[in-house]
Specification:
By secondary structure, the protein is mainly alpha-helical. Helices cover 61% and strands 6% of the residues. The chain has a domain of 50 residues. A 3-stranded antiparallel sheet has the order 2-1-3. Strand 1 and strand 2 form a beta hairpin. Helix 3 packs antiparallel against helix 4, helix 4 packs antiparallel against helix 5 and helix 6 runs antiparallel to helix 7. The longest helix is centred in the first third of the chain and has 41 residues. It starts with 10 loop residues before the first helix and ends with a helix. The N terminus and C terminus are likely disordered.
Length: 346
């Protein structure tokens, strides 16, 4: 008997046959998907090229309206235009898709995309109206609600933003931090309140919150109000280290600097006091050593990273410019040359 022969009734034969079938099916499935994707990309690229040849896209909008091009391809093309800053072309494509389309899901999705595009183009009120229309079709549209909040923020309609957050809260979404943010803004932008009353209201909201701390510190500093010991003694100064670095030594109460190790290290690193010999903060520790050596060639700079989407920006943000998340800012420090910071034209 040949030991290498396998009878068709042998279980191993069945296993081999099954594996072979799976491999063959997988190969053809992959090949079909690959060529289908190539064909679709080619179709979109050709269509995109033709779009550039016509003003107003009248002929090709008609193609979209007649559903002669898949909606997915039309959306991909609109997103391509949007990414390139050609918002008007993206808007016209979305409008063409919506023309005569009765599918509620499609209308909801396209209206949301259209509203976002109007927002990016700077047409806030138009964007708001479109997103509200999308919400009439599907009230649980979280993306539309999120951008609606951003728009109300830009329009300083803080009560409206809080109303939208109340809606999101009904969907079991945690909006506590966001509501707090708008409550703070509502207080700070209330022209009927005097400075003392605004400070009092922020204290009532809660000085233990980091957003309150930063907003209050900015308010005090920008209005040249006293940075008192009693008001700031329980602050998390790491959260406002960039603001502290730009604050003159004589603006703060001496008791505050002497009683807080981070403040002592910051102002020692700046050369204003000699309260710290070292620091657990890497950059501050180097600056302290340099100051002791009478070397003033170094400085400190800051980057701001969103803990949600991980994007980094050169300026502080309360709301991430990328993912629109609130209260997700992480401050990082780096050592720089003082001459580069002040004298370079780059």
């Amino acid at each position: 008997m040949d030991i290498f022969s396998i009878d068709y009734r042998d279980p191993i034969y069945g296993v081999i046959l099954l594996v072979a079938i799976v491999v063959i099916v997988s190969f053809f499935s992959y090949s079909w998907g690959f060529f289908k994707k190539r064909e679709e990309e080619s179709s979109v690229n050709k269509f995109l090229t033709k779009f550039h040849q016509y003003d107003g896209f009248s002929e090709y909008k008609e193609v979209i309206q007649k559903k002669q091009l898949p909606i997915e391809s039309s959306v991909l093309m609109a997103l391509t235009f949007e990414k390139g800053g050609e918002y008007q072309k993206a808007i016209e494509i979305y409008q063409a898709i919506l023309q005569g389309n009765r599918d509620k899901i499609v209308k909801k999705d396209i209206l949301t995309l259209l509203g976002k595009t109007y927002y990016k183009a700077g047409f806030l009120e138009r964007s708001r109206d479109i997103l509200l229309t999308a919400l009439k079709i599907y009230p649980r549209n979280e993306e539309a609600l999120t951008y609606l909040i951003v728009i109300y923020d830009n329009l300083r309609m803080y009560d409206k933003a809080i109303e939208v957050l109340d809606t999101l809260q009904e969907f079991d979404i945690d909006v506590k931090e966001k509501k707090l943010y708008f409550q703070i803004l509502r207080v700070l932008h209330d022209k009927s309140l005097k400075e003392e009353k605004k400070i009092q209201k922020l204290r009532e909201i809660g000085l233990e919150n980091k957003i309150v701390q930063r907003k209050l510190y900015e308010f005090l500093k920008s209005n040249n109000l006293p940075l008192t010991y009693d008001l700031l003694k329980n602050f998390d100064f790491q959260n406002i280290i960039d603001l502290i670095w730009e604050t003159r030594y004589d603006r703060l109460d001496d008791r505050l600097i002497e009683s807080n190790s981070l403040l002592s290290e910051i102002y020692t690193a700046k050369g204003d006091v000699t309260l710290a010999d070292s620091s657990t903060h890497f950059v501050l520790n180097i600056l302290i050593k340099l100051v002791k050596a009478e070397d003033k060639s170094a400085d400190i700079s800051f980057d701001y990273t969103c803990s949600n989407c991980k994007n980094t920006f050169p300026l502080y943000f309360y709301r991430c410019p990328q993912c629109q998340n609130i209260g997700s800012t992480l401050i990082s420090t780096k050592l720089t040359k003082r001459e580069y910071e002040k004298d370079s034209l780059v």
